[in-house]
Design brief:
The chain is mostly helical. It has helices at residues 2-21, 71-76, 79-87, 90-106, 112-131, 169-191, 239-246, 250-257, 278-298, 327-349, 357-366, 374-380, 390-393; strands at residues 216-219, 233-237, 261-262, 267-272. 44% of the residues lie in helices and 4% in strands.
Length: 401
């Protein structure tokens, strides 16, 4: 038991002497030093109080005594090392105490060696944390506080970790656009020339006339959006043409149409927007026209007069012929302007000074070159009170078909 203990003390003393002989900048950590941040005792076992021992330690002799024994140092040793301490002689015990004091001073808090060890440990920990970072805590998502999902996490979870092995979303979008352009270029090079085999000579459409297409349909389309007015369909036809094709009386169709017949242009106009689609509204108008033709075949309504009170004719005002600019009227206007400008030109030639505005007005008041137009004379006459008939107003009567 004493031999290993002596060997450990010798190695510790030799290590301390070597460590002190090295420079501070290149001093290395001895292999026999335990990896720790603070000072520790010479042994690695736990402390035990002296009172726990069954056999009492002998009394501490003096330093000069041949049987040297340090009771305080003996109490600081572990139970496994105390037996070896008893086997040592006085010189070896003093040597062991010096080694213990040197170790405590070397590894004490705040010593240069302790600070160097702490710096090395901090550097190693930082390198390990950088090389192997800890996984971030899982994100719980953004909470949307509302009446229906109060306190519930968002359905969309956090984004996946980008592993630096792929391009970004913008890069993928650029590649997709590049693929589309290449596809269009391939179509233009390889498939477009094949369309020349399907070319045909242009022939303008030839209309067979009103007899072949008596019904004129009108639709309303809103490009790019759905509009309620797009379902409306309007049909317009002439009773004379439809009656000649169907073999019925045009008068009967006019009377059956009622206010939908316009006597000014002789057409029947109907519309429908009661259904959801244009096809359904067009089908309804076609059925209505078939019903009108069937009713006109059974009864011609010869005893029923045609009611056109719903039509209000609008008078058309024409520009009077007397107001039109003719060669004779232009010559008269030029002569009038020359008669007005001649006195001022003559005054300027006589060097009478600048023309006065008051004098020019006086000269114009003396001249009476205005020409009375006959139609203007009629316009100045007062109109008689009361209502006047269409003949007195100059309106033409409506031509009934």
């Amino acid at each position: 038991m004493a031999a290993p203990f002596k060997r450990a003390c010798s190695q510790a003393a030799r290590g301390i002497s070597q460590h002190r002989s090295q420079p501070t900048c290149i001093r290395q950590r001895p292999q026999w030093v335990s990896q720790c941040n603070s000072a520790r005792p010479f042994t690695s076992t736990t402390y035990r109080a002296a009172a726990e021992e069954k056999d009492a330690a002998p009394s501490e002799p003096t330093t000069d005594s041949p049987t040297y024994f340090n009771q305080a140092f003996y109490d600081s040793l572990e139970a496994s090392d105390r037996d070896g301490y008893r086997t040592l002689d006085a010189e070896e015990r003093r040597k062991l105490e010096r080694v213990k004091r040197d170790l405590d001073a070397e590894f004490a808090d705040g010593s240069p060696f302790s600070q160097s060890i702490n710096r090395q440990i901090s550097t190693a920990v930082h390198e390990i944390d950088t090389a192997f970072p800890e996984d971030p805590p899982p994100s719980r998502g953004r909470r949307i506080e509302s009446f229906f999902n109060m306190g519930e996490p968002e359905d969309i979870g956090p984004d996946d970790e980008f592993l630096e092995d792929d391009i970004s979303s913008a890069g993928h979008a650029e590649l997709e656009q590049h693929r589309d352009l290449r596809e269009l270029m391939r179509i233009a090079v390889w498939e477009m020339p094949l369309l020349t085999k399907l070319s045909k000579q242009f022939e303008p459409e030839r209309h067979a006339g009103k007899e072949a297409d008596p019904l004129r349909w009108r639709y309303t389309t809103y490009l790019g959006e759905h509009h309620p007015a797009s379902r409306k369909v309007v049909v317009e036809f002439k009773p004379a043409v439809v009656g000649r094709i169907a073999g019925v009386s045009p008068k009967a169709l006019q009377k059956l149409a009622g206010p939908r017949f316009n006597p000014l242009n002789g057409t029947i106009k109907m519309s429908c927007e009661n259904f959801e689609t244009q096809a359904m509204n067009k089908r309804y108008l076609a059925d209505t026209i078939q019903k009108l033709i069937a009713e006109a075949k059974t009864n011609d309504f010869a005893d029923v007069p045609l009611d056109v009170r719903h039509v209000k004719p609008k008078p058309k005002v024409h520009f009077p012929k007397e107001w039109r600019m003719t060669a004779e009227r232009r010559q008269a206007l030029d002569a009038r302007r020359k008669g007005f400008e001649t006195p001022m030109l003559e005054a300027a030639e006589k060097n009478e000074g600048p023309v006065s505005g008051a004098k020019a007005l006086e000269i114009e008041g003396q001249m009476d070159l205005r020409e009375e137009i006959p139609i203007m004379q009629e316009a100045r006459q007062p109109m008689p009170a009361g209502k006047m008939g269409k003949k007195q107003m100059g309106q033409k009567p409506v031509q009934r078909p």
